[in-house]
Amino acid sequence: MTSTYHFSIFVSLLLLSFLLNPTSATPRKLFSLVQEQPLILKYHNGPLLKGNITLNLVWYGNFSPIQRSILVDFLQSLNSHTTTPHSVSSWWQTIQKYKGVSCTLAVGNQILDEDYSLGKSLRSSDIISLASTSNQRSEITVVFTSADVAVEGFCMSRCGTHGSTQSKWAYAWVGNSETQCPGQCAWPFHQPMYGPQTPPLVSPNGDVGIDGMVINLATVLAGTVTNPFDNGYFQGSASAPLEAVTACTGIFGTGAYPGYPGEVLADGTTGASYNAVGVDGRKYLLPAMWDPQTSTCKTLV
Questions:
Q1: Distance (Å, whole) CA 289 – CA 200
Q2: Is 239 helix (H, G, I), strand (E, B) or coil?
Q3: Distance, CA of 299 to CA of 86 (rounded, Å)
Q4: CA-wise closest residue to 259 among 201, 195, 181
Q5: Is the omega angle on the peptide bond into residue 188 within 30 degrees of 0, that is, cis?
Q6: Digit-coded pLDDT (tens) for 97-145
Q7: Which of 14, 37, 102, 215 has its CA 20 to 30 A from that of 192?
């Protein structure tokens, strides 16, 4: 089974357009509909990931050493337990509030497939094939595809995926959208494809595609841990669930609304936007995560 991260900026911006240009009968009805749907992720009694989890990484295509280091540093920051304000690890600690989830993540083996062994146009089954380097519940294989690799459904309906096989091992995939659909999968570092064309934020690591991948990687990792086999924490249909982060799509700071990511921090030198600090002081922009104790989307700032 596969759970897909559907990037819902388009839907959010459509909602914003209705709010800004309502008919005489629409506003009250639309507001009422929104109010009547509380954000509750139900636990469906399935197994969750626990203990020490190893992340095996597959780099498919052309990634520079700097690009790889940005993503690896993010992963290593998840369990760094740093006391730095707005740390990446404090973002990840919200995961521990989910009943039955208690895990630490560590980077394991890394495979570089720079020769595009399966070509530059991949099916979903190819992603599973690339992820088949492990088959244990204590491991997650994460497949990264470079900007010149097309993946089935990429940009059309998803920016990343997590799923599991019939043998019950979990995997995840995230693609670099820099040249294919940055307005969908690298927002808010690129102008959105639809809706109000507000100026994009400056990416914290100077790479729109990779900083967008961090957002999507954070999203699918949270979903993998809290809903690894399609019977964990989610709202709605198991085939198209709202999960720990997808339930809070588009929210990065306080005051966020459709088309506006919210108030975040700014680097005094570069002007780059961020809300989290990782190992070696590297900065990231991380999405809000649903907090099961407060039933709200929690942000770092």
A1: 22
A2: coil
A3: 10
A4: 195
A5: yes
A6: 999 888 899 999 999 999 999 999 999 999 999 998 766 778 999 999 9
A7: 37
